[in-house]
Amino acid sequence: MNKVGRIAVKTILWLVGSIIGLVLLLFILIRIPAVQNFVVQKVVSYLQKKIETPVKIQRVSLDLPKLLVLEGVYFEDQKQDTLVAGDQLKVDISLLKLLNNKVEVNEVDLKGITAKIDRTLPDSSFNFDYIIRAFVSEDKKEPEPEDTTSTMEFSIDKINLDRIRLVYKDEVIGTNVDFNLHHFDTRIKMFDLEQMRFEIPKITIEGINTSVKQWAVTDTSAIPSTKDLGVEQAAGAEAEMPDIKLGSLNIENIKVDYEDQASALNANVAFKKLLVDFNDLNLKEETVDIKRILLDENDAKIAFGKLSVKEPPAETKTPDSTSAAEMNWKVNIGDLQLNKNHIAYLDANQPRIKKGLDYGNLDFTGLDVKLADFFFSMDSISGKLAQLNFKDRSGLDLKRLETDFAYTNQGATLGNLYLETPNTLIKNYAQVSYPSLETITDHLGEIQLNANIEKSKLGMKDIVLLVPDLDTMEVMKPLLTRTFYIHGKINGRVDNLTIPNIEFSTLDQTRLQATAHLKGLPDMDKFYMDLQLKNFTTGKRDLDRLIAKSMLPDSIDLPQRVALKGTFKGGMNQFTTNMHLASSIGNAEVRAKYAALKDTTYDADFAIHDIDVGHLMKMDSTLGKISFAAKVKGKGLDPSKLIADIQAKLISAEAMGYTYTDIDFTAKANQGDLEASLTSDDPNLDLDMQASGNLKGKYPKVNLALLIDSINTKNLNLTTDSIRFHGKLAGNFDSADPDFLNGQLDLTNAIIAYNTSRYTLDTISLIARADSSQNLIQLRSEFLDAHMIGSYKLTSLATAFQDALTRYYNPNPTVNPKTGLVDTIPSYPPAQIEFGMTFRRSPLIIKMAPELTEMQPITLDGNFDSESKSIHAKGVAPKAVYGGTEIQNVSFDINTLDSALYYAVLVNTIKVSGIELTNTLLSGTVKNSVVDAGLWIKDKGGKEQYHIGANLLAKDDDFIFSLKKDGLMLNYDQWSINPENAIHFGKNGLLAKHFDLSLNGQEMNIASQDSVSNSPLGLNFKNFRIETLANMLESNQLALGGGINGDALLERLESSPVFTSDITINDFYFGTDTIGDINLKVNNAKENTYNAAIAIAGNGNDIKLTGDYVTPPNGTSSMDFVLDVNNLNMSTIEAFSFGNLRRSSGGINGSLTIKGTPDAPRINGDLLFNQAKMNISMLNATFSMDQQRINFNNRGLNFNSFTLTDSIGNKAVIDGSVRTRTYTDFALNLNIKADDFQVLNSTAVDNNLFYGQLNIDTDLRLRGAAMSPSVNGSLKVNENTNMTLTMPETDPGLVDREGIVEFTSLSPKDSSEILAVYDTTDVKRSTITGMNVNLNIDVDRNAAFTVIVDPGTGDQLFVKGQALLNFGIEPGGNMTLAGTYEIEEGNYSLSFNMIKRRFDFKKGSTITWGGDIMDADLNMTAIYTLQAQPIDLVQNQINGTQANFYRQRLPFDVNLMIGGKMLKPEISFDIDLGTGGNANTVSQDVTQTVQAKLAQLRNNPSEMNKQTFALIVLGRFIAENPFQSAGGSSTETMVRSSVSSLLTSQLNKLAGDLIAGVELNFDLQSTADDYSTGQAQNRTDLNVGVSKRLLNDRLKVTVGSNFELEGAQQPGQKATNIAGDISLEYQLSRDGRYIARVYRKDQYQVTLQGQFIETGLGFIINMNYDEFKELFMNAKKLQRLSEERAEEMKELLDKNDEEDIDSTSMRRNRRHQEEEQQNLPDNNPPKEQNDSDGHINKAYRNDEEIMDQTSERKDDEE
């Protein structure tokens, strides 16, 4: 080697050595801390200058070539906030291997690292962008191509992170993240980026606390895309999934909070431990195999807050399924355990559910899961669930769930199932399978079911938690607390299911066991069921707990036991069934076959046996058991083609305590022809019905014949009175369509027997006619006639009326909620009708309403036109008397004109118990839903006394009532009214405004305290006179008055109203007595309590009532009052007696406490009478009570020697008690003793029915209930009695002779015998029932009684006598009397015109009772003594020489002998020769001759009567030769007339009610002046006339005849002449204007010596007029006059808001009505009037203009 070479080598070696030395030096220096710090400071200084922000690195440690450690690193951003900071950054990397393109990181260890990154608007830059910009060169160079010759290899081993915090805030995308990590470590066994293979044996994470917040940004355009971030999406086959192998993942103490303000989402997750052991994770194969998952103490919550505004969801693009690869992940988990987990989900946007599982508010606690062998793929899921339990805040508690489950695309299986909650247990097995999910909807029948549920139970408490809406279903509410036990199997496809056994039970009695085979589901048309119902049992106790009360009517009472079994085979269109029902209230069976094929066929048997319907319907007192059987067999459902046979039988039915039996019904249908029959052989419901019909045509035809042979309502227990009915109902309708009705329904041969009376009804007909132009419906009967004629359809007539009325009044039209428009009335055809009605007081009405003693026909007429919306109606009720209340001349009118409805009601007189209301008119209009009303009341003189004018407006579901300005007149005075007065009431409540009334210091105000509805309502009075209103009623008895002052306040009107009042009535008077001042303080300020303080003071009265009355809402009312009576004047009591007391003085004082309830008050205290005295007006008996006390206690009233003193000082003493707890029912325990007590001391002025003096001695004992007392004791009428009784003149003349003639029905014998009245002599008994009276009556022989028989003639009876009688009243009401009244002295004074005779009773005459008070035996003789010449008596027995001996006057006794029974007395006469006077001086021959003649007369009663009457009237005998005696016969006639009048009057009183609706006239003619035979003879004739009104009172038939009672028959005269005289009067018009009369008279003519018959025809015209000139007006002028009067009435109605009505017009109209009624013929109904529409009923009243109604009525009568 040369020198150069050596030098070169040395040089190279030196250079290399130097380099190596430098490197070694550098390597040594870099490991020196001072050098390192120097370098770091240089670098820091450089960086600070470069980026212009503070940079700090406290320490750098390098251990080359591997380890790099940085400590105390700090980078600050431009906002002077931390960008990056760290306690230590340690990286163990092989630097030398970087030379070989290999990055080998052995360890990464970061501690205490904090990084804060943010991006702000508007520049959208990160806080580290300034660093990037500082190192980016301004000269941009083209990027060099990447060297791909070699690939960098990466290797990472250990990673350890401690105390890591990452803060990221991005205003551009609206995100804020604060991530804190306590510890993280792992080792990466393989990290091959080239092959994408990674293996991580273990990952440990501990202590993560992270919060993430997101919000919506205003500008979404600034949000970067993934391209801006440099993220590339791999696609296609080249994008292979990495190969990752994971070992175990151990995560502990994790807490993550997430908030999304845009969606109001808050999520929180915190758990203690999560352990996952992986077997395999193959992303390429999409498989996950996990050995174990363990999650402990997880607490997770997701909450959605309330969104203020819901934005529409952003549109998302659905990925194209054809371009994306299908996913087929498979997951296996060997063991999954979740312990003590808590999961909550809350969505505030969903409504809260108070009860049940709230799916928007879930909160699961105690969630434990044990799952093994879990497998998941996209088409299947399976596993073994060993444990699942949790509790939810709703109460759902899943205690245990175990099952082996499997789910695939073709089905699901639950094996070894065990599900348990506190109320539910489901066990065993369930499987469902199907071809595919895609076809399951279209092929439900192919679903395969296989389930075996063994001894399971289902608790509805759990079901309602899962389905909370069940709680709102009324039908489900009773079930929600029940548990149902289930045991059974099911297998097969849905369209072919087999249920080999199903058992179901619940509660105590409900059990079901059955087998079934179901086919055809879900197609119900193909459905088929083969059901074998082996047993189904239940009962009332269970059903009451299973069925909601609202689902069953309150009137249903379920049976105690129910059992059902049987079979059912078939489907909806064809089935066969056989069922048997057995229950505690009866049994039932049904067998049926049904097939709805081409022709529907059916065959069924149905039977019920002793079903207790009364128990079922809670009508045990009305209904009982029913047994019924029926068979039906037929084909077809179309009525026109139907072929069917129906047979039914009511075997027995209990109703109202009666058992109906043997009622058969049959029906046959043959292609439109229908026949039916109903037969009842029940003895008390005997009827037979035959019906037929034809349904082939357009309108069905029906024929009906119903024979009601007998209905006995009393035996059927329908009535307490005996009512029996017989009749025939016949109907024949050629068209039974209601809109085209043609036919007639008649009730004929109707007989009603009411107790002992029998009444035959006239025919009642319902006639219907219809053609293309008009319809007619007409009702004809004796009590009601009605018709409706016009063009209309019956089914739409109600709609037409409704539509017409809404034109005038429709305040709240119905609004359609969908359209918001007013609902219109459905369309209907036009209707024009005319209607009329007449109601009469027929005999039937008299029986039904006996208190309706008088009623003139009531009429109603009108018309209606739907097109013009016009309504006209007029009603008239001339007179009615009901129960003492008399109403006269009532009329009402309704008319429409000019879009207004006018109405008027006029009442002329109302009389009630002396109170009279006269001249009352109510009228007004209805227009635009405003009711205008006016009320006028006039006095008897026609002067306006009261007037009220008001308006009623409907507005917004409320009504507004207001008085008009001059709309109030009270008692002739016009009151001032606030013009702004109004009372609002309705849906919104009550509100009164400015309702102020005033007059001369009198004021009444009604006003709400506030301007809102239901505010407190005040009522104020100032000197308001009671007379102002009381004088409305004209009554002499009801006079009261006083001044009202005070106020009342009504509050809480919207809920429970309460009130307070303080009202005083000053100087209150009643009748003629001033009571004093009455102060009323009543309030219920305390809830449910009424506190009262009522005081009466002044005029000697001092009374106070204080206390409380409590009315709890659901309890019994109670009271607690104290009544202090310091003094109550007897004169005050007299004022309230309505004249029954007079001359009262003294007073009452005491104190009472009143407690308890209104139904059972407890009254304690005493009332003391102080010098009290009163006179009973009708008795004129004065009674005094001084220091007499009545004691009240909890058991009733006590009388301790309570003494009444009469006017003469005699006393009556009352001892005992009246027990009561209710003061409505009383029990008597009283003893009454009196001695010579005067109970009557009056004259005829006091009481003209009975008067005089009546003094009694008595010892009575009253026991038992007050309504049925027991009265025992004695009663003596003593010698100081002198009493007069007057018999009332109910029948003063002989016009009405009801009860004398008996009418016999000419109907067939069987019909008359059906309802025959057998006991025709039964007398109407007393209505007093329940009493048990037994009195011994002793009449003193000196007690005098006078009976005035006829006050007009002066006929009277005077008797004195003695009697020992026993009087009794049985509890049933029968009165008995036993004993004898023996007359000591007395007389009967007989008067006839100017002749007065006195008959003295013979001592010893008796009246004997044997028990029946009306069945007394009479044995009475009255004697009239006079002096008479016997010459006329014996002139044929003596010669002329002896005549003078017989001209001297001898004493004669005329004997009137009364015998027989009291109800049928036998009266006879006798004449005896008296004693004394000339009887002692005449010769014996004279007396013997006279005696012999008198004995001869006794054998000839007619001759004896003649001589008797001659002696009484003329005072002498009558000779046998009529021409030798004058006046004898007329005397006899007068006497006979007087006696006949007396007897006839009494008989008519007994028989007056037996025949109603028949007028009887009698004329008894008795004379001795009959010389028709040439000799004077006695003759007595009785003329009887009978009249009856028929055909609605239009036809009057009068039949009369003469009966010879005494005397010889005239030559040529008929022996019998029944119905000899006949007269018929027929009203050709209903108003009685035209009358036709036909008569026939059959009478004897002396000149012709025979019967003479006269016949004739008459025509009568009645004209009514207001003015005489109207008689000569033609029809047009009369029509025009009627229209003028109608217009006058309209104007009158329009003026109802004025101060006064034109009284002249009203009086003229009223006078016109009265004159019309007066001008009508007797016994004819008043003319029907309609001032507003004169043509009303014109078509109807002339029957022949519509149809031949006269011939129809004639046919009915025949």
From TrEMBL:
InterPro entries for this protein: DUF748, TamB_C
TM region(s), chain numbering: 12-32
Region (Disordered): 1689-1758
Top-level lineage group: Bacteria
Record keywords, A-Z: Membrane, Transmembrane, Transmembrane helix
Subcellular location: Membrane
Pfam families: DUF748, TamB
Membrane topology: Single-pass membrane protein
Name of protein: Translocation/assembly module TamB domain-containing protein
Species, as recorded: Olivibacter ginsenosidimutans
